[in-house]
Sequence to fold (382 residues):
Amino acid sequence: MELSEQTFAQKFDLYGCFQCGKCTGGCPVSLKSKLNIRRLMIEAILGRNLDRLGEREELWDCTTCKTCTIRCPRGLKPMDLVIGMRGMLVEEGHIPKTIIEAMENTYKHRNPWGKPKNKRTEWTKTLPEDVKVKNFSEGDRAEFLYFAGCTASSDPRIQEVAKALLFSFQQGEVDFGILGNEEQCCGNEIRRMGEAGLFEELVEGNVNRFESYQIERIVTMCPHGFNVLKNEYPQGRFDVLHTTQLLAKRLEEGKLSLKKEVKKVVTYHDPCFLGKQNSVFDEPRILLKAIPGLTFKEMDRSRERSLCCEGGGGRMWVEASSDTGQRLAEIRVNDAVELDAEILVTACPFCILTLEDAVKTSGHEDRLRVMDVTELLVEAIE
Fold:
């Protein structure tokens, strides 16, 4: 792999780095992995070891939570450097087998989970009869496109969240429609796994599809989809909201009524792509605190300081390379247990999956339940 000293340094403007170490100091996986962002930065600046990137398995430990970039006092983007290095590995074929499978699935089926394209909306067939769903691909029109995302379209657990969400939409008088089987991957994780070409192809296909159906407003429950549609698709073309933002607005307008008591002690986990990357902190809490009977407790590591669950950056499809410490999701579960919370609430499909698995592996199944915000809303509505 032939790389000049300036390849990464110039592309990612690394010469402003003065090696303060805040990137590594804030990295949630640095204490349990060989991943050292500061070392990667200096090696990229000096052009050292760049011909041996294929040996750096720890590059796949990065969750792209963006803490390193947020903490950099010089405004540099260490996370983008990691993605760039992954891109070099993709070009050379030095990537984990499971990552290859996810990318091949996305190319073939238009989702990394490998679900056939013609079965993307199978989950809607089990919706309650009173929940009506418009379909843009069948000629329907609506104010919002509900972009379900790959995980909600593929995973049975997240499909339950999607069903709760659509019920909440209906109760909140949200005029929405879906793309049906024409929906495809948003590309957020594909870009972060280093496959820039496939990402650009997905963006072009999605934008063309949105425009062909005259879609201007998009709402999604996945913070990863929310992030990429809002920040990495053509700017100003679409108005993109996370579902908690839209539902909090409906609550404020008096269109969403929460009357039934939910006498539970809950705490909230801020997803990285929703919270620290897009500053959506208040809306999920507004919704939770509006539920009658609910007792809300804040974890110490919350909002900007929230601890990553390790689900982002392609980590849903690859195991950590040199995991020597406790899984971050297990730490998060223990944080919730220490608060005597009965429910650990979040607003991200990846977080739900990682946290539920951590509840099982940490032995807290009899003490703690993981739920999405919208699932609790349904309990307060019904």
Notes: The chain has a mean pLDDT of 93.
